[in-house]
# Entry
Amino acid sequence: MSWQNAPAVTKLTASQQGGTRGAQLWGAQDNGTLNTIFQETPGGAWSDWRGPDWAGSPPPRPAQVYELAAAQQNDGRVQVFALDMMLQLWTVWQTSPGGGWSSWSGPNWNNAPKGMKRIAASQQGGTRGAQLWGIDENYNLVTCFQITAGGSWSGWQPWPATPENSPFLMVTASQQNDGRVQLWATDTQQQLWSCWQTSPGGGWSNWSGPNWNGAPPLTNIAACQQGGTRGAQLWGIRRDYTLVTTFQGSPGGGNWSSWSTESFQGAPTVFELTAAEQNNGCVQLWAVSLDQKLGSVTQSSPGGGWGNWQF
# Structure
C-alpha cells in the first residue's frame, strides 16, 4: 500500500503554501494523469487525492503530464508548472494563499522553448517572486523569473554554462533559509554541479563542480529549505537507487555535511523524489520505490530529526 492510498504516481513535485494550509503534493501517473493531495493544516491531516480537474478550471489544460515543478511566489501563493507529453509548458497558480486556483495557461506558457525535458522552480527572497529553470532539447539550462512577487515574468534566457559546457539531465533548486536560492544540476555523466545567489533575489555565483561537495554519481535530485537553524537539504538517488543526502549546517553557509553513505532513514530503493516544508518549518519528503509505491517521511521538528517512512 502507498502513502495516503496514493495512485501509482511516477513523477512528483511539492510546495509549501501560505494561508492556513500546509504543503501540497502533485503526482503524475505513467499514463500522464495528474493527481494532487494537500495538507489541511500545517503538519496536520491530508485531504483525499484529487484527479485532473483538481484546480476546478475547465479545459484547456494539459491532457497528460510528463514533468512537474511547483513553488511559492513570495506572496504565499503557489504556482505549478507542467510539461505535457508533447513537452509543452503549462502553468496554473493560486488566486490567494492556500486558496483556489486560476485556469491553466498554455501550451508554451510565456513563450517557453519547445522540447524542454526537465523543469524546476523555487521561491526567492528580495523583491522578486519565483524562478523557473528548464533543460531544453539541446540539454542546455534556461530560465525565467517573476519580476515581482505574484507579478509578471521575464523572458526566457540561457543560463551560464559550466566550465565543461555540461549537457544537463536533472535540475533542482531551493532557498537556503536566508532568502538566497541554491541551484543544482546533474550532467549526462551524472556529475553534480551547483551555484547560488549572492544576495536574496540578486546575482549568482559561478558553477561549483563537477561532483559538488564530493557527490557520488546521481540519477535524480531534489532540494528543500528547512526551518530551525539549518539552511537547505539536498537528496540524491545513486545509480544503485539508494537515497542519500547532504544538508547545510546554517542558512546560506558553505558548511554542508558529507553525503550520507547509507539509505536515508532506511528508505527502500527509489527512483523519484520531492520535498516541501509544511508551513510549520518541518520538511516532508516523498519518494517512489522501484515497485511504484509512494512513501513519505517527515521531520519531527524544524531542522531537526526525522520520523519513519510510511508507505
